[in-house]
C-alpha cells in the first residue's frame, strides 16, 4: 500500500526523504519523552497539539489501521443499539490488542497520538466523514473515561481546567437538595443499578454537583436528567463525562475544519495521499484481519454431500445461501457467482477434490451440461481457485469489501450482497418469513440498509437469529464484515448447542 519512494520530489518541503521512510521531522528520544509526558499528564488527552518526532511509513499506515478497526467496531455497536456496558465489553479486548491506553508505555502513547492525527487527515475531507469521525472518536473518549478509576477521572478533569467545570458549594447543594435528589435518583437507579433507597441517599450525600450553562448539556436537559434553574444546569459529578465529551467533540470538529483547510499542503508528499485515500475509503467497511485462517483448520470437514445438510447450510450467511439456492435451481452460476461461492466453500473447509465433485454434480444434475463439457469448460477454473493451475496463487475467500466492490448482479446473476442488491419487498419477505424476524427487527435491519450500512445489517441479522451470540467466545471484532466469519461464529454456536 505504501510506496517507499526514494527519489526526491523537488516541490516537497515539509517531509524528509530518508532511506528508512521517516516522516514528520525528528527529535531526540529525551525530548520526545518530555513531549509525551506533557501531552499525557493523565491517561486521556484532548489532542491539543500536533505530534512531533519521527515515524516510519509502515507505522503511519499500521497505527492508523489499528485505530480505524477500533472506531469501526464502536460505530457498529452504536448502529446495533448496544448499551454502553455492552460496547465496553466488546471494545476492551480490542484496546488490549490494538490501542492500549491505560499504560505509561511511550510507544503506546505515541501510537495513540499519531493514529488520532493521521485519521484526522483521512476524515476531514467531507462533512459526512467529519461528522462520523467526531461521533465515533467522542464515543471512544467516553468509553476510555469510564474505564478509568475515579481518582484518574478527577485528575484528568482538573488537568483540563475547563472554565464551566465549577463545583457548587455545600450550602447551595443543601438549598436545592430536594430537587437535585429527585432528578438524580432515576439515574442512580437505572444507570448505576442502585435499587435501594438508602444506597441512593448515601450516594447523593457524597456526590458533588457542577453548575454550568444548560446549553452545554442539552441532551441531558431534554431527557430531564439534570435539574435546571435560571439558565443553569446542575450536573452530578457521575455525569460529568457528558459535558466533557461535548467539549471534546466541539474542539475536534473545529480542528477537523482547520485540517481540511490546510489539506492542500499534503500535495507536496506523494507518499501519503494514496494511504489517506485508502483509509478514508475503507471507513464504512471493516476488514477481517484473520481471513487467512478460514479453511486451514477444517479442511475436509465439508464434503460435496455434507454441504447440502442442515448442519452446514444453516450456518450460511444470506449471500452464500442465495448462491446455493440459485445453483440448486438453475444447475449453473455465472462467473462472478461461481467465484464468490467457490471461495466461500473453500474457506469453510471444502477441499479441491470435494469441490470438483460438488460443482460437477451441481452442473450436470440438470441435464444441460455433460461431464465432458464440465471438464472442458469449468474444471480448470475451480482448480485455479485452489492454486493448482496458472500462477498457483492461494486465493482467499472474498470479504464483504471485495463482494461490494464487484459489479451489481444483472438479470440471471446471483452474486453480490443481498442487503444491497435485493429490493425492499424481497428482503422484507426473507427476513420476516424465512428468518422469522419480528416487524421491529426487520425495520431495524432495513434502516441500516437505507444508510448503506450493509455489514451492520448482516451483523444485526446474525445477532437476531442467534440469540445475541450467547455462548460465543469473542476474542476480536463482533462486527461481521466477512461471510466466512459469519459461518465460523454460527458454527461455534451450533457446536455449543449440541
UniProtKB/TrEMBL annotation:
Annotated signal sequence range: none
Residue ranges with Basic residues bias: 1-11
Domain (DNA primase large subunit C-terminal): residue spans on this chain: 312-487
- GO MF, any single term: DNA binding
Q: What does this protein do?
A: DNA primase is the polymerase that synthesizes small RNA primers for the Okazaki fragments made during discontinuous DNA replication.
Cofactor(s) recorded for this entry are: [4Fe-4S] cluster
- Name of the protein in its database record: DNA primase large subunit
What Pfam families does its record include? Answer: DNA_primase_lrg, DNA_primase_lrg_N
Sorted alphabetically, the Gene Ontology BP terms of this entry are: DNA replication initiation; DNA replication, synthesis of primer
A Gene Ontology cellular-component term? alpha DNA polymerase:primase complex
Q: Which UniProt keywords apply?
A: 4Fe-4S, DNA replication, DNA-binding, Iron, Iron-sulfur, Metal-binding, Primosome
State the similarity comment: Belongs to the eukaryotic-type primase large subunit family.
What are the boundaries of the region Disordered?
1-25
Co-factor binding comment: Binds 1 [4Fe-4S] cluster.
Entry-linked PANTHER family: DNA PRIMASE LARGE SUBUNIT
Naturally occurring in which organism (per UniProt): Lachancea mirantina
Residues binding [4Fe-4S] cluster are: 319, 400, 417, 458
Query: Could you tell me which CDD domains the record lists for this protein?
Result: PriL_PriS_Eukaryotic
Amino acid at each position: 500500500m505504501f510506496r517507499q519512494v526514494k527519489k526526491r520530489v523537488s516541490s516537497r518541503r515539509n517531509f524528509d526523504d530518508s532511506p528508512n521512510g521517516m516522516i514528520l521531522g525528528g527529535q531526540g528520544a529525551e525530548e520526545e519523552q518530555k513531549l509525551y509526558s506533557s501531552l499525557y499528564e493523565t491517561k486521556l488527552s484532548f489532542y491539543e497539539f500536533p505530534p512531533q518526532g519521527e515515524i516510519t511509513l509502515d507505522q503511519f499506515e499500521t497505527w492508523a489501521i489499528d485505530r480505524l478497526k477500533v472506531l469501526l467496531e464502536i460505530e457498529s455497536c452504536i448502529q446495533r443499539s448496544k448499551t454502553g456496558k455492552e460496547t465496553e465489553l466488546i471494545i476492551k479486548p480490542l484496546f488490549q490488542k490494538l490501542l492500549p491506553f491505560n499504560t505509561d508505555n511511550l510507544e503506546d502513547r505515541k501510537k495513540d497520538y499519531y493514529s488520532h492525527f493521521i485519521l484526522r487527515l483521512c476524515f476531514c475531507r467531507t462533512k459526512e466523514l467529519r461528522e462520523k469521525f467526531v461521533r465515533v472518536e467522542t464515543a471512544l473518549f467516553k468509553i476510555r473515561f469510564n474505564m478509568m478509576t475515579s481518582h484518574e477521572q478527577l485528575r484528568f478533569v482538573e488537568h483540563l481546567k475547563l472554565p464551566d467545570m465549577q463545583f457548587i458549594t455545600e450550602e447551595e447543594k443543601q438549598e436545592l437538595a430536594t430537587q437535585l435528589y429527585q432528578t438524580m435518583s432515576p439515574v442512580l437507579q437505572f444507570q448505576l443499578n442502585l435499587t435501594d433507597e438508602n444506597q441512593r441517599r448515601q450516594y447523593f450525600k457524597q456526590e458533588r454537583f457542577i453548575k454550568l450553562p444548560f446549553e452545554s448539556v442539552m441532551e441531558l436537559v431534554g431527557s430531564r436528567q439534570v435539574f435546571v434553574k435560571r439558565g443553569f444546569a446542575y450536573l452530578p459529578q457521575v455525569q460529568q463525562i457528558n459535558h466533557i465529551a461535548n467539549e471534546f467533540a466541539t474542539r475536534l470538529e473545529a480542528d477537523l475544519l482547520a485540517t481540511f483547510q490546510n489539506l492542500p499542503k499534503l500535495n507536496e508528499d506523494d507518499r501519503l495521499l494514496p494511504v489517506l485515500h485508502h483509509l478514508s475509503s475503507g471507513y464504512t467497511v471493516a476488514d477481517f484481519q484473520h481471513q487467512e485462517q478460514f479453511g486451514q483448520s477444517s479442511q475436509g470437514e465439508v464434503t460435496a454431500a455434507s454441504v447440502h445438510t442442515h448442519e452446514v447450510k444453516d450456518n450460511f450467511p444470506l449471500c452464500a445461501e442465495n448462491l446455493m439456492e440459485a445453483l440448486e435451481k438453475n444447475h449453473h452460476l455465472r462467473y462472478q457467482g461461481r467465484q464468490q461461492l467457490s471461495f466461500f466453500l473453500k474457506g469453510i473447509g471444502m477441499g479441491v477434490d470435494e469441490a470438483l465433485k460438488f460443482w460437477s454434480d451441481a452442473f450436470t444434475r440438470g441435464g444441460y451440461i455433460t461431464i465432458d463439457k464440465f471438464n472442458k469448460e469449468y474444471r480448470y477454473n475451480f482448480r485455479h481457485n485452489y492454486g493448482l493451475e496458472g500462477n498457483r496463487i492461494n486465493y482467499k475467500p472474498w470479504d464483504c469489501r471485495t463482494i461490494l466492490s464487484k459489479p451489481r448482479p444483472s438479470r440471471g446473476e446471483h452474486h453480490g450482497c443481498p442487503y444491497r442488491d435485493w429490493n425492499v419487498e424481497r428482503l422484507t419477505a426473507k427476513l420476516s418469513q424465512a428468518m422469522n424476524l419480528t416487524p421491529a427487527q426487520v425495520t431495524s435491519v432495513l434502516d441500516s440498509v437505507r444508510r448503506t450500512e450493509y455489514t451492520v445489517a448482516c451483523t444485526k441479522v446474525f445477532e437476531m437469529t442467534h440469540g445475541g451470540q450467547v455462548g460465543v467466545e469473542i476474542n476480536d471484532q463482533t462486527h461481521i464484515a466477512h461471510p466466512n466469519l459469519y459461518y465460523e461464529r454460527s458454527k461455534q454456536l451450533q457446536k455449543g448447542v449440541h
